[in-house]
User: Fold this.
Amino acid sequence: MKKVLFSIFISALVIGLLGGLGYLWFDFLRHQSTEPDITEITSFEECEAAGYPVMESYPRQCRAGDRTFTEIIQAESPSLTSKMWMWMGTQTDTGKMIKPAQSGAFTVSFSDDGRVSLKTDCNSMGGGYKVEGDKIIFSEVVSTMIYCEDSQESEFSVFLHETPSYRLIEAGELIFEMESGTMYLR
Assistant:
């Protein structure tokens, strides 16, 4: 009887050990097939796709083990309607640089529906615009008529009369090329 119990005990022990080893092997294979090697992850996108935690920050970050990957945010290219443009200065055709005496006092805003709004150090203006190729054509521009001594309004609003060509630079600048010079807005 002792031999039978001993045989049953040994058999149960062997079966238990084999079962435990089988479970561990199965678990090991399961994790091998679903989790990529952390050393193979080289970007935020790969980290996120592998299911690692993503921190809701700006920009977002993903942590894989002791490594953190930051999402690369591509800057949108500026458009005429993407922002309110502030006059930074005008380089005249004679080489003279004219800068606004009051920073931020001169602005231009273009809307998607073809309207333009301007603010100067003295008056407000508004009207229509249309783009033809690289040219902007302004129409029906109206203005308040306040008189302000030492205003730079005429230097700023010259582009309304000259049908300037324009270009947008990725650094966030709008440049008007006119016969009388080049105007820079940011």
About this structure: The mean pLDDT is 86. The first helix runs from residue 2 to 34.
